[in-house]
Amino acid sequence: MARHIFGKELDVTKLKSNVLSDLNKHIGKIHFMMDELKNIGKIVTQPKCFICNSTKSSHFSNVYGFEYVECSDCSHVYTQTRYRDEDIIEFYTENATYSQVTYANKETCNYRRDCVAKPKFDFVIDNISGIPSTKKWLDVGCGIGDLVSVANDSGWDCTGLELSRHSIAFSKEIFNQNLVQSTLEDHAAKSNDRYDIISFIGVLEHVINPIKHLEITHELLGQDGYVLIQVPNALSMSTFTQDIFPNTVFRHMSPVEHIMLFSQTSLEKALTLTGFEPVVYWWHGLDSYEILNQITLLSKEEIHNTKFNNAWMKLMSEIQLVFDNNKLSDRILCLAKKI
Ligand SMILES: [Zn+2]
């Protein structure tokens, strides 16, 4: 039986200062990105569940003209229409706005490295059964290489794969990391390396073939290897909030980026199908931050210095812990062992 850990202290003002300072501008950037993808991409239908291939589903939510449905067999949530694989890959490779909006921000990158990536690294180290002598780690879709930087500074030999050339340049400049511009599939075809840990932090929800990613991962891992996965939680307070405010979504249930959201059931299904066993889950998220943002957007007045805002900011972590304790946090982080 897998263990479950709940909650994490987080100061969102340090991580998301750029967002809180101007939410409307941020939503504008998301809409701009959506238009850019619309210009280069072609929409196709997704007829079946990405995880279990079931064609049975029911309506889940509508966001920006995309319908999310819930798989009747494994409760995976996915968009019924999406852009083609080649459009998605081109978008992530070339789009500077996407790279900046998500991670490549000089004001927040050190906080992200020390307070977001480092705890995930520690979570892995604390929960694997002994440190392997080879210490080889592969971080797939590594963004600006914050986790890669933490692992390498801690004596691991960590390779970071990333598509975005903007994020790769940013990582070299800020963290002095040499990321590899490649998909997992291409890397596996070219390299004979085997790894002790392979991580996917916010990656599988972007790709059209999550099961194939996990199958390749199984092959690339040594006998006692682990996979670390972070995916958006479909059954979270952020999802439920965005379901009632679909016109101001700018993260999480954002259909251009996240063509699927996982449930614990669908994630376990994916792991079981590909030869993994969950060891430990860590439930934490940004749902209290999401609710504050949506209330801020609803108000026509600037609310940043109001009593409401000050009280909410003070209680943010405590409110979040209630959601985390009930597995309603907007992300699922899972460490699973190869079997
Ligand atoms: Zn399914």
Written overview of the protein:
This protein is of the alpha/beta class. It has one domain (about 5-339): Rossmann fold (3-Layer(aba) Sandwich), CATH 3.40.50. The chain contains 14 helices and 14 strands. Strands 1-13-14-11-10-7-8-9 form an 8-stranded mixed sheet, with helices on both faces. The protein has a 4-stranded antiparallel sheet with strand order 3-4-5-12, with no helix packed on it. A two-stranded antiparallel sheet has the order 2-6. Helix 13 packs antiparallel against helix 14. The two termini are about 15 Å apart. The site of zinc ion has 8 residues, from loops.
Which short descriptors sum up this protein?
4-stranded antiparallel beta sheet; single chain; binds zinc ion; Rossmann fold; 8-stranded mixed beta sheet; 339 residues; 44% helix
Furnish the topology, listing elements before pairings.
Layout: E1 3-6, H1 12-15, H2 17-21, H3 23-40, E2 43-45, E3 57-63, E4 66-71, E5 77-79, E6 81-83, H4 85-94, H5 96-102, H6 109-127, E7 136-140, H7 146-153, E8 157-162, H8 165-175, E9 180-181, H9 184-190, E10 195-201, H10 210-220, E11 221-232, H11 237-244, E12 260-261, H12 264-273, E13 276-284, H13 287-298, H14 307-325, E14 331-338
Helix pairs in contact: 6-7, 11-13, 13-14
The structure holds zinc ion.
Order of helices and strands: EHHHEEEEEHHHEHEHEHEHEHEHEHHE
CATH superfamily: Vaccinia Virus protein VP39
Please state roughly what percent of the residues sit in beta strands, choosing from under 5%, 5-15%, 15-25%, 25-35%, 35-45% or over 45%. 15-25%
Largest β sheet strand count, sense and barrel closure: 8 strands, mixed
Inertia-based shape? globular
What is the CATH third-level topology name?
A: Rossmann fold
* Strands, total number: 14
Q: What is the number of independent domains?
A: 1
Q: What is the CATH class name?
A: Alpha Beta
Rg calc:
19 Å
Note the gap between the termini: 14 Å
- Provide the helix percentage: 40-55%
Neighbour order of strands in the largest sheet: 1-13-14-11-10-7-8-9
- Low-pLDDT sequence parts: none
Q: Provide a count of the helices.
A: 14
Would you identify the CATH architecture?
A: 3-Layer(aba) Sandwich
| Mean pLDDT over all positions | 92
Structural class: alpha/beta
Small molecules bound in the structure, each named once: zinc ion
